Amino acid sequence: MNGRDNPSVTQDDGSYLRNFSERIISNQPQSNSNRNSHPRAQLSVSTEAWNTRNVSPLRPMHGLDFLSGVSTLHIQQTVDVSHLTSNIKSENLYTIKIPNGLTLYLASETSTKTQRLLCGVGRAFTMQIHDNTRQSVMQMERRLAAASCCFPCRLQEMQVITPPGDYIGRVQQQWTWVVPFYLVRNVNDEVIYVIEGPSSIDNRNMILGQFKILSSDSLREVGKISHRWEGDVNSFVTAIEFPHCAPDPKQKALLLAATFLLEYTYFERAKTSCLRFNCC
């Protein structure tokens, strides 16, 4: 055949392979110094003023981060009509909002039916707090105790635990004959705030009750916890105004736990009586 069907086979002298080897890239491209003269702009992930429209979607907020820029919170209970007519209370549910109505957290109580029947508002419970991403924010644990000055050996106390099980402090009632008195303690058991109630704690006064948040030396009022009727939502609301000197979210979490402790110890009884007998 003498290579007539494929002349390149008989006439190739190897130049094609030599040319192909020269086409192989053996050196990687080097960086150009001019490219480094303009560094890449940083992405904005700041969480300052998170409740404005200029929020970066690159890092979703969760947990205690929501408390960083908050000065006031409203706690509103989800009330079922059947709860008002039943002798056995159900486990409470709450929404925790900022004043413009945005919901930050959802709170759900876990307690035993026996204690809800026999102990009422003095029952022990665990309050689970979740954010809008369904992640656990904190857990508040209240022991079975009495709020009366007649039982000084077993007064109210609530501990606060954050995931994955870090104890950050507690709220502790102090025995007194005069006014309700609570201490807010951090993880080192140091008193960071004092909460002082009104001199009269009957249901009529507690329906619009107010507690002062004082400095650790009890000399200055730095915030307050109040219970009032909100016409906009047609419901009772427990409001907490955080101290301006409390930028740490953990301190705000402890004050939030103190608010729930006051809600159960004083406000819930007054609120239930008011709704049941239609006196408000």
TrEMBL record:
Cofactor entry: Ca(2+)
Amino acid composition bias (Low complexity), ranges on this chain: 26-36
Keyword Calcium: yes
Keyword Lipoprotein: yes
Region Disordered, residue ranges: 26-46
GO molecular function: phospholipid scramblase activity
Gene Ontology cellular-component terms listed: plasma membrane
Swiss-Prot/TrEMBL keywords: Calcium, Lipoprotein, Palmitate
Superkingdom assignment: Eukaryota
Family: Belongs to the phospholipid scramblase family.
Known function: May mediate accelerated ATP-independent bidirectional transbilayer migration of phospholipids upon binding calcium ions that results in a loss of phospholipid asymmetry in the plasma membrane.
PANTHER family the record matches: PHOSPHOLIPID SCRAMBLASE, PHOSPHOLIPID SCRAMBLASE-RELATED
Protein name: Phospholipid scramblase
Organism of derivation: Pieris brassicae
